Amino acid sequence: MLLDKTAGRLRSGPASELRRPGIAAAAWRAALALIWCVFLFVCTCTYNFDRFIGHGDIHFIRNPYPQWQELLDPFPSRLSRSWALQKIGHFTGFFVLAAILAFRLRQRWHAALAFAFSFGYAAATELLQLYFFRDGRLSDLIFDSAGILLAIWLCLRRRNGRLR
User: Which phi and psi angles does 133 have, rounded to 5°?
Assistant: First the structure.
């Protein structure tokens, strides 16, 4: 192995690949995405969301018999402030996840991968909510998807030099 004094890193061999700035940035992005996924899980599956927001109370109660028909429940007939804040949270939470994953896009298929992972995780959280006495709804995927698509669209525009 040779030391490249201009770049300050080793030039050859598999070990030198770990010292490349692109690899390190990708590892940090993956770690940040994992931390954000844990945060989203806590937000979506804690027993009482209002107590979580108001008092920081994180409490999980497992539901051994989820009510699968809740997935198909429509929007409530009376929309409240709490409902609107939760939908803004859905949009924002998955916007951030997709932005973390798609921030340094190098190729278009990276955007597709970021979308697939973000949307898959959004669908998984909706299903998991049913196992924690929360309301998992497929309609929430609309808000999740809107955040995901906006983040990826902005990252693609940034990549193409249209957004500075």
Answer: 55, 35
Q: Are 76 and 109 contacting, i.e. CB atoms less than 8 angstroms apart?
A: no
Angle 152-153-155 from CA coordinates, rounded to 5°: 60
Q: How many CB atoms lie within 10 A of CB 66?
A: 18
d(CA 96, CA 99): 5
Cα separation, 50 vs 82, whole angstroms: 8
Report the percentage of the chain scoring pLDDT > 70: 85
Please report, to the nearest 10 degrees, the dihedral formed by the alpha carbons of residues 15, 29, 31, 48 taken in order.
Answer: -170
The more confidently predicted of residues 56 and 121 is 121
Question: Quick one: pLDDT band at residue 162, thresholds 50, 70, 90?
Answer: low
Which of the four pLDDT bands, split at 50, 70 and 90, describes residue 125?
very high
